[in-house]
Design goal:
Number of helices: 8
Strand order of the largest sheet: 10-9-8-11-12-14-13
Number of domains: 2
Radius of gyration: 19 Å
CATH topology of the largest domain: Rossmann fold
Number of strands: 14
Largest sheet: 7 strands, mixed
Amino acid sequence: MKWMEAKITFDSLEPETAISLISDFFIDIGQQGVCTETPEFDPGLDWADGAAPLTEHYAVIGYMPANADLAERCRLLEGKLVNINHKLHINCRATYRDLDEQDWAESWKAFFYPIKVSEKIVIKPTWREHIAQPGEIIIDIDPGMAFGTGTHPTTAMCIRLIEKYIQKDAAFLDIGTGSGILLLAAEKLGASRLAGIDSDDIAVAVASENLIKNQVPAKKIQLITGSLVDGVSGKFQLVAANIIAEVIVKLLGCVRPVLADNAVLICSGIIEKKMDLVSAEITRQGFETIDMITQEEWVALAVQLTGT
C-alpha cells in the first residue's frame, strides 16, 4: 500500500495549543495518530544514537493511506488549517510526501523515545534502550500500523487513571484498543483478565503481537474486532475508552451490560471544547464523574453509575 505523509509546519505564540488543534484535525479526518516535531526537544545523551536532527520549526505529521479518500482528506485538512490561520493567526504550511508501506512504517520511529507517563509506567519502543529505575514498570511497544505510542496526552492520562483505579485481579476492558498499550498497562498493574476491542482488524493484530512481546499469557486475553462493546462477553471492574467525544457519547448509552458492580469507566480523548457534550450525556445516562484530569486542552474522566 502507498501512503502520504502530511507535514503541517506552523508558527504560533502558543505552540502547545496549535499542536492540539492540528492533531485534532487529523483525528477529525479519520487518522489514528500523529508525530510532532518541536525545536526545543532534546532526547538526552543516552538517546543520541539514531536520534532525529533537531528541527527549526514546530510541526505535526500525519500518515494517510493513498486510497480513494486521500484527496478529500487533504482538502478537509487544508480547509481546517486556513480556518485557524484566519481565526487564531496560526500560520500553517502543509507539505506532502509519498511513501511506500515500509518507508511509512519506519519514518516516524525517529521521533519515538522512552517516556514515563505515570508514577510507575514507562513506555519504551522496542528499538530503544532504557534502564529501569526503582519502581518503574516498563512496557515494550511497537505500534506498527495501529499507531498508538502512549505519548499523546489522551493516552498518558488514561494510563494515570488506570494506575489509580485498578484493583488487584480486576477484569479490564479497553474499547478502541489500538496498539494494546492500555491493556499492557492494566496487566502490568495487576489485572487478571483482559479484553480489547477495535473496529480495525489491523489494530487487533498489532495489539496481539504487543501482548505476546510483553509475555502476557494468552489465557488472560480476549481480543475482538468490532464496534464499542458489540461481542464483548463478561463484566469488568475497570473499562477504558480512549476515543473521541462523539463516540464516548454513544458508548455511555450502551456500556452498562459490561460494567460490574462499582465499575469505573475511564473516558479519554475529549477536547476541552467538547466537555459540555460529554458531561450532559454522563448525567443523562445515570453516571457521575468521580475524577477528572487535564493536559494540553485534553480531558480524561473517571465515571461511575450513580449510587454504586
